[in-house]
């Protein structure tokens, strides 16, 4: 059954989709962090901008940042979501419950912010920034993939309860 089943409430998603994406994301981030530890970032803070930009750990984590950004622009066409919908979801039974799409989407924005800060700091030459940011994003993605615990989703719910984000997703003024 596809995600477009008639019983799916508007604005909801199959909760297994974000976990699937988090599994792939955590694997990419783990490799990216490893490559960052052996690349130019930690050991050579005096490396040129070109050397830092071509570091394999930087390139892989930049690809992860693109995936995060893509999910914010068009969650339906994001490659990991499309892969889940086309290859994985048809082989599963329909979900017992649907999930509100807003918390996972917010979590993608948090992931983009964390990885993005690491990428920027790496480019300006801050040692270990890429490793630390990638490791933090890895932990969050791994928790979601392995245990279904989404840190970004929990942060979203805390911000809604605090009144800083309205249920519609806009910041309170």
Automatic annotation (TrEMBL):
Asked whether the UniProt record includes Membrane among its keywords, one would answer yes
Keywords, comma-separated and alphabetical = Membrane, Transmembrane, Transmembrane helix
* Domain DUF4395: from-to ranges: 13-161
Enumerate the transmembrane spans: 20-38, 58-75, 110-130, 136-160
The keyword Transmembrane helix appears for this protein? yes
Pfam families per UniProt: DUF4395
Q: Where is the signal peptide?
A: none
Q: Specify the protein name.
A: DUF4395 domain-containing protein
UniProt organism field: Leucobacter edaphi
